Amino acid sequence: MKYGFFKTAAATCDIKVADCGYNTHSILKAIREAEAKGAELIVLPELCVTGYTCGDLFCQSTLLKEALRSLSYIKEASLTLNIIISLGLPLEYNGKLYNCALLLYRGIILGIVPKTYLPNYNEFYEKRWFTPAPKDTVCIDILGQKVPFGTKLIFKAKDYGHIAIAMEICEDVWAPVPPSCYHAQAGATIIANLSAGNEIAGKAAYRRSLVQNQSARLICGYIYACAGQGESTTDVVFSGHNLICENGIILNEGKRFENGIIYGDIDVDKLISERRRNTSFETDTEGYTTIEFEFHPNNSQPERYIDPHPFVPSNDADRQERCREIMDIQALGLKKRLEHIGSKNVVIGISGGLDSTLALIITSRAFELAGLDKKGIITVTMPCFGTTERTHSNAVTLCKALGTTFMEVNIAPAVMQHFKDIGQDPDNHDLTYENCQARERTQVLMDLAGKYKGFVIGTGDLSESALGWATYNGDHISMYGVNCSIPKTLVKYLIKYAADYTDSQVLKLVLEDILDTPVSPELLPPDENGNIAQITEDVVGPYELHDFFLYNMMRLAFPPEKIFYLARVAFKGKYTDEIILKWLKNFYRRFFTQQFKRSCIPDGPKVGSVSLSPRGDWRMPSDASVSDFLKRLDNLDKK
Angle, to 10 degrees, between the axis of helix 316-341 and the axis of helix 354-370? Predict the structure, then answer.
């Protein structure tokens, strides 16, 4: 249990039908193996103590007594094992037999959950032997202990309240309204499903989808442990298809037709964060009994892949589809605004950099969708002190390749006059020197928009907005910001997508060169060789780090120290701990101090799960203090 990661295991043991002694040995072997790997919870299959396919042997008192003997042995062995155990066996209560799941920890049976839905169709005959779970929770005597018995049980770890476990059994999750739905509403974050689903052609895909979607619907961790080899094959075969899911994501999946153990580190903090922000996820604890138990986390290192680029799908096919979808959203948003205003003209400043290139591509697509003449796209380059030949040439080529109305306005004379008016020394390359250029460019664009009865398209992106990397009342302002929720790490992939799918060789070549150009606002003079001297990431830090910080802070509401830990894992070997901590502190400082810019940003389409629009996803006072966040990071410095 480190940084909210709860290490779980789903195990399929080698068993022999009706041989409880053999099965007990196999179960304990799996438990010990999982504990040695650092697992804090292990889920075993339905009726694993006896075997699921015992048939009418379930009615034999000998089998039931041996099952209890096995439970006693496992209970005793668990005293020296630091792992929560969820296992299945048949139990008799009030003269009726129940298919049960037990939760066991350190020699204590925490509770017993009988199966609610008994399949009695096709190859299943469970109602022949078992009784459905009773409606009410009772206490029963088992192995000298009073134990809660019922379906509405939540097992909560003391001092680790986010670990709340509930159980259902196999067919329960296939029902129209599975018990796990109520469990989650009652506070369960971890659902254990002890299963013995047999294998037929095509069933695995459905099962995978079912478990994955249930974990998403319930915003929970879902561990599905299935019976495998060892069960009777008289009529059916069991494959041991184990799954560990977290909020719609498959963390691990066992290889079918092979018995074994799979592991998954479930981020319980993430689940709580998701539930906290989802106001339609209502809680209802009526009728539930909460069993608290002393929990001793093992604090083992989580073995989980941390995506360094959470905004960008790693799979090529998924990334291509995501790019297409995002560009459609951007273009349709702008199309709607064009139609609403009734304007046939827009004005957009083109620098030859990534953001303005993407904005122009989207604007071109919006004009196509609206059936407008692209001559109504008035593209403007505004060279000044920092403009290089490379970016200028690319800007000109791009605008002409897309069939826009191209204009060039050299703003250097106007900026020099402004310097004279305000007493700014042109040799003093300070913030005023830079901002004067940015504001002059915006003034040109706004005035051209008025002249041509159009509106200005903003080019700034989500990452710049998060860092406040924009000149207030300069590039900060527009009438519609098409890139407002596009993170910098995604911008390149969108442009690459456009380059890959264009029929124009000229456009393809210029887009590829723009992709290779360093990110810069070009507000400082080029170096002696005419190359870009002002590299944005040298000033604010690597955008891939900032996008990683932004996603984990905004989307998941993780605390600074957890974000630092995750970044260390995600970027291991690329950035040192000192570099990550330096830029993480810088991220928090800039994010908090630059909120005033975000409080008055223009309209623009939301395309992903993170947005900084003050009218939509993010409402934050401009005067909020960052001190508590930085204190947590300062404490890391002292360790």
Answer: 60
Identify which of 145, 139, 141, 64 has the alpha carbon closest to the alpha carbon of residue 99.
Answer: 64
What are the tens digits of pLDDT across the range 494-535? 999 999 999 999 999 999 999 998 877 777 787 777 776 677
- How confident is the model at residue 638, as a pLDDT? 63
Q: How confident is the model at residue 147 (pLDDT cuts 50, 70, 90)?
A: very high
DSSP secondary structure letters along 93-114: ETTEEEEEEEEEETTEEEEEEE
The per-residue pLDDT for range 52-109, each reduced to its tens digit, is 999 999 999 999 999 999 999 999 999 999 999 999 999 999 999 999 999 999 999 9
Size (the chain), residues: 639
Catalytically active residues are: 46, 115, 170
CA gap 306, 569 in Å, rounded: 7
Buried b (16+ CB within 10 A) or exposed e, 188-211: bbbbbbbbbbbbeeeebeebbebb
pLDDT tens digits, one per residue of 197-210: 999 999 999 999 99
Angle at 302 between CA 299 and CA 303, to 5 degrees: 145
* In 473-559, alpha helices (H): 488-500, 505-515, 536-540, 543-550
> Measured between alpha carbons, how far is 231 from 45 in angstroms, rounded to an integer?
11
- Rounded to whole angstroms, the Cα distance separating 231 from 273 reads 40
Residues 328 and 461: beta-carbon distance below 8 Å: no
336: exposed, middle or buried (Cβ count in 10 Å: 0-12, 13-18, 19+): middle
Containing H/E element for 246? strand 243-246
Rounded CA Rg of the chain:
31
Q: In sequence order, which residues have a C-beta less than 8 Å from that of residue 206 and are 6 or more positions away?
A: none
Query: With contact defined as beta carbons under 8 Å apart, do 205 and 250 qualify?
Result: no
User: How is residue 276 written in tokens?
Assistant: 């906290």
pTM confidence score: 0.92
Q: Residues 46, 196: contact at Cβ < 8 Å?
A: yes
